[in-house]
Amino acid sequence: MTRPVGVRSEPLLEVEDLAVVFHGSRGDVEAVSEVSFSVRPGEHVALVGESGSGKSVTALAVMGLLPLRSTTVRGSIRYDGDELLDLDARSRRDLRGAEMAMIFQDPMTSLNPVVPIGVQIGEVLQRHKGLRKTEAREVSGDLLGRVGISDGKRRLKEYPHQLSGGMRQRVLIAIALACEPRLLIADEPTTALDVTIQAQILELLRELVSGTGTALVMITHDLGVVAGLCDEVHVMYSGRVVESAPRRSLFGEPRHPYTGGLLGSIPRLDSARGEPLTPIPGSPNDALPWTHSCAFAPRCGNRVDKCTVQTPALRGSEHVSRPGDEQALRCFNPLDTREAS
Amino acid sequence: MSAATDGDDADPLLKVRGLKVHFPITQGILLQRTVGHVQAVDGVDLDVRRGQTLGLVGESGSGKSTLGRGILRLGVPLTAGTVEYDGVDIAGLKGERLRKQRSSMQMVFQDPMASLNPRQSVETLITEPLLAHGKPVNSDTVGRLLELVGLPRGAALRYPHEFSGGQRQRLGIARAVALEPALVIADEPVSALDVSVQAQVLNLLEELQERLGLTYVVIAHDLAVVRHVSDVVAVMYLGGIVEEADSDDLYQSPLHPYTRALMSAVPVPDPEVEDHRERILLHGDIPSPADPPAGCRFHTRCPYRQPTRCDDERPELRVLRPGHSAACHYAEQIARGDIEPADAAQMVGTS
Question: In chain B, which among 234-263 make CB contacts under 8 A with chain A?
Fold first, then answer.
């Protein structure tokens, strides 16, 4: 499972202190703030959180897909040394699709229903690689073969509605990988799929990404998907990262009460039956503002007085066994590593 | 010999035999010709014992929701078969008698936003089923039901949009148990909810079962959820049940190749487990129920498929062990390891 990452190569993507503010008619909403993470070539990083945690907004900010007029993005997003937030729209378009690509959750809404899939794949190649239409067709057919769609050449003429959900997701992956991007962001790529199809798609992603040095950012709410695929995990709650750790420590000894709570509330296929689940009380809507408290405090079992009057900072942990194994935690009263399940 | 009839002496609350639901596919505008049928449910036998939970699990298109609605006769015309509820065959009931019957069989729906009328207050929503069946409603009824599902009494005057997803699902459950039914069918009760909230609703369902002595049929695509709440699990594939067993037994020794594949595909939130387990990857998608494959419906994707018999003969659900049945010609041989999966590339280790 360990990928050759070399002697900790330079990060490909470095997000620092990212904040995204949406300007609405009823005032500003800070969807994401103080988010920092980095991804090295070949590394698989996960952003985990429930709906509203800001994980997708973070991805859209990295891709530069947020509407310019109604949003403000602060902080820094460095890709291969370049500051993306300083680039103009044109240069970002050149990067997007060629250097960095994204796979979206719902392939039915992200594919154009009235355009054959061959054209949609070829489009990327024509735009970024300057291929002619006929050349693009050739390459598109091969790409479909690579993502496991047999008889790719013939199927280029098909429209999205003629394909099943799993096939559509494969087409999206083909589009994303058309220009061999160095950074791939997958936003809930399997959420809309059945489990057996999910397994196929995850295996395909794993296969396509490993060995090529492509960095993968996986965005999901499913901790099970993360456990088998990602090296580093960042857990988000209400717009901020609350815990970052390599997957083994995160799943083995979760420190943040939210992470621990999530793990305790999912029924596991391999656990003894009849063990009651321990849900996190309340709902994500109950979050407090981060400005003067911990957003998770109202639902937290480890709450102390400080939690509702002061903002916990994201602190690195004292013991870092290997460089690069960054662990960070945003909590005043973390779980005891021994008692955590 | 149906699998469901074996062994147990207790008379089941719900007894389904040979249930078929076929939807006609029509062509033409004025003179509609029937050109085929979607065989959503095709020959299902089921027994649900009192106070127990039966889990129905399957992928989309397996017919699990249609089966659930077919049992309740909820907008789904039955093509064939009987549904015996508490000794009464309800498959032939119509009109007022069917409506009366429904007061003891209720449903919890998947999307609590879509199943609650946004213009009705919680009080109206909850008293509606009671009024429809002419049950007495007094000043305490609503408050008592709200408390039962863990909502404050003050919620009675609010509207569905004021609640979070989990709270809305609690309202849906309150409506379902308002008539004190014996049987509750829950169709994907947690799949629309946030992960941290799912456990709350699952626990509530279990708690209500204990307090009210409910019998559940829980329909879900998530095998881990189904296994957690169910006593008996039935796995569906393309309109039929392929395996039925006690929940623990099913997990420890799945007998049908589809169940094995399904189970190996469910991700487990534990890196240690994920890195070392074997995965059976199925090729392709679930075939269309309008044109199901001949013979065993799973043979097009089955790694253990054997020549001719699997293609020609549809396997019956057979009892292979007490309380454990599967619809596979070669279940015993596969369990013993006599038959190897045809395509070694389908077995993928992750490490």
Answer: 247-248, 251, 261-263
pLDDT band at B246, cuts 50/70/90?
very high
Q: How would CATH label the architecture of B3-104+180-348? A: 3-Layer(aba) Sandwich (3.40)
Chain A segment 233-252 residues within 8 A of B by beta carbon are: 247-248, 251-252
Strand-pair partners of B80: B20
Q: Does B80 reach chain A within 8 Å, measured CB to CB? A: no
pLDDT digits over B74-112, tens only?
A: 888 899 999 999 888 988 888 888 888 888 999 999 887
- Distance from the Cα of B271 to chain A's closest Cα (Å) equals 5
Interface test with A, best of B57, B205, B228, B346 (most A CBs within 10 A): B228
The letter for the amino acid at A231 is: D
Among the listed residues A200, A128, A124, the one whose alpha carbon sits nearest the alpha carbon of residue A165:
A200
Angle (deg, nearest 10), helices B122-132 and B165-177: 20
Phi then psi for residue B242, to 5 deg, are: -100, -25
Asked if B221 reaches chain A (Cβ–Cβ under 8 Å), the answer is: yes
- B267 and A200 in contact by Cβ < 8 A? no
- Cα-based distances in Å from A237 to A31, A50, A290, A312, B116: 11, 7, 10, 13, 29
* A95-120 per-position pLDDT tens digit: 998 999 999 888 778 899 999 999 99
When CB atoms are compared, the residue of A197, A261, A269 closest to B223 is A269
Answer whether B268 sits within 8 Å of A270, measured CB to CB. yes
Q: Tell me if A267 and B199 make a contact (CB, 8 A cut-off).
A: yes
- Give ipTM to 2 decimals: 0.82
Chain A residues within 8 A of B248 when measuring between CB atoms: 273
CB pairs under 8 A between A and B: 149
Q: Give the separation between CA B152 and CA B147, rounded to whole angstroms.
A: 6
Residue A307 in this model has a pLDDT that exceeds 60: yes
Please indicate whether, in this complex, the C-beta atoms of A283 and B350 are within 8 angstroms of each other. Answer: no
User: Are B261 and A196 within 8 A, CB to CB?
Assistant: yes
Pairwise CB contact (< 8 Å): A199 & B195: no
Instruction: Considering only the beta carbons, identify the residue of A263, A278, A283 that sits closest to B194.
Output: A283
Quote the pTM value. 0.86
CA–CA dist A168, A197 (Å, integer): 11
What does the mean pLDDT of chain A come to? 88
Question: CB under 8 Å, gap of 24 or more: what pairs does A93-96 form?
Answer: A94/A128, A95/A64, A96/A63, A96/A64, A96/A65
Residue owning tokens 């509407």: A67
Q: Is B110 on the interface with A (CB under 8 A)?
A: no
Query: Whose CA is closest to A298, among B230, A307, A306?
Result: A307
**Minimal Cβ distance to A222: which of B200, B247, B267:** B267
Q: Answer with the residue of higher pLDDT: B279 or B299.
A: B299
Secondary structure of chain B in the HEC alphabet? CCHHHCCCCCCCCEEEEEEEEEEEEEECCCCCEEEEEEEEEEEEEEEECCCCEEEEECCCCCCHHHHHHHHHCCCCCCCEEEEEECCEECCCCCHHHHHHHHHHEEEECCCCCCCCCCCCCHHHHHHHHHHHCCCCCCCCHHHHHHHHCCCCHHHHHCCHHHCCHHHHHHHHHHHHHCCCCCEEEEECCCCCCCHHHHHHHHHHHHHHHHHHCCEEEEEECCHHHHHHHCCEEEEEECCEEEEEEEHHHHHHCCCCHHHHHHHHHCCCCCHHHHHHCEEECCCCCCCCCCCCCCCCCCCCCCCCCCCCHHHHCCCCCEEEECCEEECCCCHHHHHHCCCCCCCHHHEEECC
